[in-house]
Amino acid sequence: MEEITNPQSKFFAPRADCFASFDNDGTILCEKISYFEVIFRRDHAREVHSKYPAWAEDAEVPKFLTVSDEELTNLHTSESMKVMTESEDELTERGLHEIAEKWLNTAHHPRFECLYKSQHRIFLRRYRRLLGNFVQGETADVECRGK
Length: 147
Known about the structure:
Blueprint: H1 2-5, H2 36-48, H3 60-66, H4 77-86, H5 93-104, E1 108-109, E2 114-115, H6 119-130, H7 140-143
Antiparallel strand pairs: 1-2
Helix pairs in contact: 3-4
């Protein structure tokens, strides 16, 4: 961002030529380690794995339950899909929403040390500050260290 907003930089882009682009849910920066939906589902499966004794006999389940966030992207879909679907089979839509909301309010991105749900707002705010568009009430520095 500093390069494209610095008039002396060879990468400078005039303000009139700049625009912001977001993916459909505004969380593209959260997906840099792995899709955060998969991280959420792995974390949920870790919490409920004792309810599924059959998982102990399935060689693919331990891979999914013990893998790090960074390694999730290397897992084959078959190694995760079964656990993700079975761990949510008995949940109602409301039940899943409650679990997801709890996770979103507590789960931190390991690189940026902030809530996954805060990242897109944080980077947009920093960009707007670089452009001189300060908005009252912005709390980006409080929400995230943004390494």
